[in-house]
TrEMBL record:
Signal peptide: none
PROSITE patterns: BLUF
Protein name as it appears in the record: FAD-dependent sensor of blue light
TM segment ranges: 166-186
BLUF domain span: 3-100
Alphabetical list of SMART domains matching this protein: BLUF
Listed Pfam families: BLUF (PF04940)
Originating organism: Marinobacter pelagius
Entry's Gene Ontology molecular function annotations: blue light photoreceptor activity; FAD binding
Statement: the UniProt record of this protein carries the keyword Membrane: yes
InterPro entries reported in the protein's UniProt record: Acylphosphatase-like_dom_sf, BLUF_domain
Length: 189
């Protein structure tokens, strides 16, 4: 049983669409597929997408990591794929994540500022920046959508409302009509 870790950077070939539920729609589809495939292959890791670029980190059995990376290299949603890290490891560090997703967060902005970077471009990362980015993904757990092989969890900054504004308006209007109908019916008696 030979474990390896692999980090790569790539450019997205798609035009980014408006973010839905905290995740760009193309990236959401990638995450769903990765989540299922990685859980079956017992791979763990994380993904960051920003400025039309991906940074992904994988850990697992060497054969499974290589098969997954080969599949990624054939995926037409990626281009200019660069392997940043590929080496053996003794133990997993993302123990229960089949694919953790970190959207743009304060942590990533601080990382970019600390390194004097005006945009996210992992193809140009130094070895130290790659390690720091892996650590950031591993430790990130607030104000973002986290995807693991058990369930999708959203960690909201504040308690979300169960109703959309349109539904709230409709319910209030229905309640006003009902009260008005009851008052009218009571006046007929």
């Amino acid at each position: 049983m030979s474990l390896i870790r692999l980090a790569y950077a790539s450019e997205a070939t798609f035009d980014a669409q408006p973010v839905e539920k905290g995740v760009e729609p193309h990236v959401a589809r990638i995450l769903l597929t990765s989540r299922n495939n990685n859980a079956k292959a017992k791979l763990v890791g994380g993904l960051y997408y920003g400025n039309d670029r991906f940074f992904q980190y994988l850990e697992g059995e060497e054969e499974e990591v290589r098969k997954t990376f080969d599949r990624i290299k054939r995926d037409d949603r990626h281009r200019n794929i660069i392997t940043l890290i590929e080496e053996p490891i003794e133990a997993r560090t993302f123990s229960n994540w089949s694919m953790k997703y970190v959207p743009l967060s304060a942590d990533v902005r601080k990382f970019l500022e600390r390194h004097g970077l005006d945009r996210f471009n992992p193809q140009a990362f130094s070895a130290e920046q790659c390690e720091e980015m892996i650590e950031l993904i591993r430790d990130s757990n607030h104000d973002q959508k986290l995807v693991n092989h058990d369930e999708a969890v959203t960690a909201p900054a504040s308690k979300p409302s169960g109703f959309s504004p349109a539904l709230k308006f409709g319910l209030i209007a229905a309640a006003v009509c009902l009260v008005g109908a009851l008052i009218y019916a009571g006046s007929l008696l």
